[in-house]
Write a structure and sequence with these properties.
This protein has a single domain, classed as MetI-like fold (Orthogonal Bundle), CATH 1.10.3720. The chain is built from eleven helices and no strands. The radius of gyration is 25 Å and the shape is flat. Its main location: membrane.
Length: 314
């Protein structure tokens, strides 16, 4: 009679006390983030509600809440998006150079410098833009106005001080450049070595190896890093407030003296002297910025999740 062996049922391994504590702390931290986020949203909505229900003539400017916030939202999106357009390609190029082209000793030094640049306070960038960059752009913007004035971005007349939206965009691009570069560089360093060696073994050049192995692997990280930099640019306050010469209005002219402000800079400049409904109006503009930032981050997460099945081990 053949003996049969029964397979013992698979039992879950009991968690040790340390595992339970760590699991509880991790879960609590995640819940705490959601609670804080919900609390911030509730605070902004509650404080902004008087301005949402107030008559148009009581809102600063006397034209209503929408017409008050719209130029600020336009300036915020214009400066942040143009800064991202400048910074993202440069960040990817720098990350590729540091990872694949620079000698190891130079790459190590550049990595330290990139991390150090990301830690510089924003007010330092603002002072640099105001004192050094703005005067240097006066002659180039004059040339742009004379030769490319048919393009709305360079319609002019150019500002005599250089405190233009173009300078604010360049300052924002420099500020978010090290953040994007650091994240993308780490992603490229995680590219599977087997993928790179396989591409080179098949006769690919270094650029072809980067295009077929490194860039596809790091695509989601590039998107995530770009959205991280965009969020930084959307919420930047002091650098924009120092650099920009604000006159209000909605314009695509990047080199003129009439520039729309940004939401964050307007709150920083107006809040100390505001009272009553003006404070509620500023908080309402902050609520709009909060919503825009949340939408940007959720969109980036959706794009990244579409590629979560891609694995370097595949």
């Amino acid at each position: 009679m053949a003996s049969t062996t029964e397979r013992p049922p698979a039992n879950k391994v009991p968690l040790r006390p340390g595992d339970r504590i760590f699991s509880g702390i991790s879960t609590g931290s995640g819940v705490l983030i959601l609670v804080v986020l919900a609390g911030v949203a509730a605070f902004l909505l509650a404080e902004a509600w008087p301005s949402l229900t107030a008559p148009a003539e009581q809102i600063p400017g006397g034209k209503g809440l929408v017409l008050y916030i719209w130029p600020l939202l336009f300036g915020t999106l214009l400066s942040a998006l143009f800064a991202l357009v400048i910074a993202a390609p440069l960040a990817v190029a720098i990350a590729l150079f540091v990872t694949y082209y620079a000698p190891r000793s130079i790459a190590k030094v550049l990595g330290y410098l990139i991390d150090l640049l990301a830690a510089v306070p924003s007010i330092i960038f603002g002072l640099w833009g105001f004192t050094q960059l703005a005067p240097l752009t006066v002659d180039p913007t004059t040339w742009l106005s004379e030769n490319l004035g048919f393009i709305p971005f360079f319609a002019g007349p150019p500002s005599a001080t250089g405190r233009t939206m173009l300078v604010a965009i360049i300052v924002l691009a420099v500020m978010i450049l090290p953040i994007i570069t650091a994240v993308v560089r780490e992603a490229f360093m995680q590219t599977p070595r087997l993928h790179e060696e396989a591409a080179l073994a098949l006769g690919a050049t270094r650029w072809e190896m980067i295009r077929t192995a490194a860039l596809p692997f790091g695509r989601s990280s590039i998107i995530g890093a770009s959205m991280l930099g965009l969020g930084r640019a959307l919420g930047e306050t002091m650098a924009v407030a120092i650099v920009l010469s604000v006159s209000g209005g909605v314009t695509f002219n990047l080199i003129g003296s009439g520039n729309p402000s940004t939401i964050a800079a307007n709150i920083a400049l107006q809040f100390p002297e505001s009272t009553g409904i003006a404070v509620n109006t500023l908080i309402a503009s902050g609520l709009v910025l909060f919503a825009i930032t949340l939408i940007v981050n959720m969109s980036a997460r959706a794009v990244i999740n579409r590629r979560k099945e891609f694995s370097g081990a595949n």
